[in-house]
Amino acid sequence: MPGGSTSGKIPERAGRVRRRRAREPERVEALRKGPRRCSSTPGSTGRRSLSSASEGVSAEMKPGTRLRSAVCATEVMVVAMPRDAEVELRCGGAPMLDLSAERTAGTPDPAFASGTQLGKRYVNEAGTLEVLCTKPGAGSLSAGGVALAMKGAKPLPSSD
Known about the structure:
- By secondary structure, this protein is an alpha+beta fold.
- The chain is 14% helix and 26% strand.
- A hairpin with a 6-residue loop joins β3 and β4.
């Protein structure tokens, strides 16, 4: 019956809309619980923490985390972190702070005062920790008491 009534039939599309709305309470409940996290241990968020008992500073470290030095102008962004390991990242011998935390008064330790360069990447010996310098400063970066090395450029393939 073109242009007329549907003679009591429900269009197929209306049935799909009703089924979708029937599932909606489940979606709302899932959104209330928060995002799903894949982790190897129950209750784990998949993040590694950076903490220092002497400073009382605690921050979640993961790729993309931005940190600042407590004793100089250096700011870095974490590019890569080792899995399932706590790393104490330091600059100028003092623990790094969250970007929103205020600096403390002090000077870099002379053993860790070789400075950082803007735009350079620094890695540990194993190559599992990598940070990018976003603001240079007087202190040098270290992890676990060992200075981080500046990452060199990758060699280009030959064009023979």
